[in-house]
Protein 1
Amino acid sequence: MNKLDRSRIAVMNIHYQYHPFAKFLDAMERHGIRHVDLWAGYPHFLVPDATYREAAELRRELDRRSLNPICFTPKQGGYPLNIAAEDPIIRQRSLDYLLKCVEIAAELGTPMLQLLPGWGYYGKSPEEARGRACEGLRRVAERAGSLGITAILEHLQIIESNLALTRSDLAAMLREADTPHLKAVVDTCHMAVAGETLTEYFGELGDKLVHVHLNDSDQLPLGEGKLPIGGYIQELEQLGYDGYVSLEICSRLHYIDPDAALAVSLGTLDRLLS
């Protein structure tokens, strides 16, 4: 059994997006968090306009604060980005963007790069869109692997994608992409919506499941939702999971006062870990 503790907890900055990035970094230091999951979106880090020099400067700032970036999570879930797009211009733009994300992740020294499956037109068979997604994922993951980075794919909910909604969909996309450099991440919020369990995920995906997002229902701060977070922690320990666990808050109400929302999540987590 691998005991989960603060040393394996990472926090994502997505719910600080209406605040300066320095406010997030200050909060990490204040709460004693060492690992960060870097969400790259405006205004914190805008990939299309970013230079590699800016990425190097960001890495120096993280080093100065003794913060370890465990994953680069670029914004990619909406307009104008869709790796599965039927429109060849949008799809190529999305691939170019993600390939640049690989280079940025390498400059930052992050061992993981998170990817999403994109989406096809709802009401049409998803097979062609899934094929386009898998071909693109393979290209991005292969480039990542050549730089020592593991690409990790997350399935979503039907309101976000129609290509990967369950653990079996995720496993099928990994098989079709057919590259050892593409692995899986499980988000407990999406998992619960699909009616599945961590044991089922690890049972089907095995060593391809390399990262966990520990999220409450509706991606609220931990303890404000309805999911059995304590049970998930125990299950991860019983399964022998020894990787990082990222905390996300994607409830926009909590973007107003991100410090308060983070304090709720960390307070809940500390009680459960103790």
Protein 2
Amino acid sequence: MFLEQGIKSQNKFWLYLIGSILIIIASFIGQIPFSVAVLFKTFTGKEVMPTDNAAIMKIFEPNLTLFLVMISFAFAFAGIYFVVKYLHHQTLLSVTTARRKVDWKRIGFSFWIWTFFTLLSFVIVYLTSPENYVWNFKLIPFLILVVVGSILIPIQTSTEEYVFRGYLMQGFANLAMNRWFPLMMTSLIFGMMHIFNPEVAKMGYIIMIYYIGTGLFLGVITLMDDGIELALGFHAANNLIGALLVTSDWSVFQTHSLFKDLSEPSAGLDVILPVVVIYPVLLFIFSKKYNWTNWKEKLTGKINVVEISN
């Protein structure tokens, strides 16, 4: 079982706290190039030093900003690898899946099915309110976005999945010896991680339902499927297709996407619908394809100490 792979006598919970700090430090190291670039741009260009995150994100051309921001996730991913290997004496595979090897078909299926849902929902919204969107396509910047995004955005999303659905989920399992506590804690922390996103300032805290609900969905498919492959595919599609498809002045990243959203953001059905309708539909599709059973035990049951191997 996936959670049991991280439960070992030497894997005390305090080690996960230390490991989390080390991963955060690795991420901070990865932010140095962006910080240096901002300082250089400010002093050489005689520009005003940006005082908030929104201003920082607009100081460079969007593709360069995306590249510089995503570098930190590559460092964080390296941090995950070294923490898992040298602090917990596990393999990266053990925080990826309970299978003998990574199931790339699962990643691909999850990626393409969420790409389909994303494109379908955008078409519906666009046809409903076409006045809210303008064609934003510029060939060269878009092609650069495709290359940079296709390489670095999956690293960003994979890093988050390895931290939350892999590393921390196993860590909380060590602490609680059950399945519901890791599921709830990682979902809440994942959601709260987005609290400083500009979308929250624009739409209000109600959008946290979407963020926490997404974390819960990703946690459920991880526990039911005994691995993070489906979560990896979903998260990569969500961020990459989103970055390529539509941008706005109030989103975290401004990209050279195909469309630009001119509407004033507001939290409504678009926040609730994915959590209460679309995610359950995806759960049904996944459950039928991968023959999931015994939901209650896999999501809320206790971890059987007899199953734990050292």
